[in-house]
Amino acid sequence: MAACTNSLADVLESDLVVIWGANPANNQPVFMKYLFEARRDHGTKVVVVNPYLEPGLDRYWVPSSPESALFGTKMCDLHVPVRPGGDVALANAVLRRLVDTDAVDRAFIDAHTEGFADLEASLADVSLDDLLVQAGIDRPTLDALVELYASASSAIVLWSMGVTQHPGAVDTVRALVNVALARGNIGRNGAGLMPLRGHSGVQGGAEMGAYASALPGGIEVNPANAADLAERWGFDVPDHEGLTAPAMVEAAERGELDVLWMSGGNFLDVLPDPPRVAAAMERIGLRVHQDVVVSSQMFVPGDDVLLLPVATRYEQEGGGTSDHHRASHRLFSRDPPSGG
Question: Which domains occur in the chain, in start order?
Fold first, then answer.
């Protein structure tokens, strides 16, 4: 799946949000504000499926709410500590229990899906105990998860890089889609599938071409597509993939990066092994950091380190793309500081 089937507004109407392999508390503050309001106004329940319960998903501080800002807000109703690599087994165990307890939406399945009978047959051949061992959870935890999910009239299943950056990610996403389809949680208010991007703001960046492994719009990088864009744009377009963030660090370690221009982001805080990242960044001849705030990576020593300001989204007119691929035009609300 490339985009959410629901909008953030649907979070406000949802009975249940299942956060699977994601940590929006650290990198999606806008989503967390919606989740806070959903819990406050609608009583939305939250399940976190992750080996580790991230502190921000256990208790979150919302700056715009005085009470929450001072005391924090409880966010998680149930933590399911799935074993790393056990996501498909857990999703299949949920499906198995939904079928066994007749908690699936037969009308939706018959009208909008194909192959569900084959899925049921395959699940019947698998031991539930074996699935629990693979998932690394006990039966009471599974029953609590299934009870919350089956009793919710609408649910959103959300995942992020804990799923997509893991081996077997395609199978895991398919399993999560099956979980949503089994209860008809697609195509109606308060329900949906929500592949949340790893950081807020990257959706539009990826679609306009700031992506290592795809051309603008998610087009495959190959000579034919590069030549087509070059003809339309009037300049040469590379026909090979670029470097991902980890690959940039490795290239810097080998002395293969002369210039690194960072527009937002912070390798030092988000990549594993910060000492290694810092040592690699020190080897780059010229680093240009362009951001709205000062970040820790700007203080990593180097031959030449240049810091540049940038206007925020509220200080410039332009377009934007949401996580559910909805494009919008944005007017600026204030001028950037003079001299910026």
Answer: 8-195 (3.40.228.10), 201-240 (no CATH)
d(CA 52, CA 173) in angstroms, rounded, equals 20
d(CA 246, CA 253): 11
The distance from CA 11 to its chain's CA centroid, rounded to whole angstroms, is 15
pLDDT of the residue at 16: 98
* Cα–Cα distance measured from residue 287 to residue 168, given in angstroms and rounded to the nearest whole number: 36
Across the chain, which has 340 residues, the per-10-residue mean pLDDT values are 83 97 87 95 97 94 89 96 96 97 97 95 94 97 98 96 86 96 96 81 66 86 96 95 93 96 87 94 96 91 93 73 64 64
Q: What is the pLDDT of residue 263?
A: 86
SS (H, E, C) 172-196: HHHHHHHHHHHCCCCCCCCCEEEEC
Q: Do residues 193 and 5 lie in contact, with contact meaning Cβ atoms separated by under 8 Å?
A: yes
Contacts of residue 147, defined as CB under 8 A and 6 or more positions apart, other chains included, come to: none
Catalogue the E-assigned strands of 21-137.
Answer: 45-49, 59-60, 73-74, 78-80
Q: What is the pTM of this model?
A: 0.77
11 neighbors 33 (Cβ within 8 angstroms) = no
Count how many residues are written for the chain. Answer: 340
CA distance 319 to 316: 10
Question: Which position has the token pair 């009583």?
Answer: 43
**Amino acid letter for position 34:** Y
The whole-number pLDDT of residue 196 equals: 85
Q: Taking Cα atoms as reference points, which of 326, 291, 339, 306 lies closest to residue 3?
A: 326
Instruction: Say how many C-beta atoms besides its own lie within 10 A of residue 121's C-beta.
Output: 9
Q: Which residue has the tokens 């998903």?
A: 57
Alpha-carbon torsion (270, 276, 277, 278), positive or negative: positive
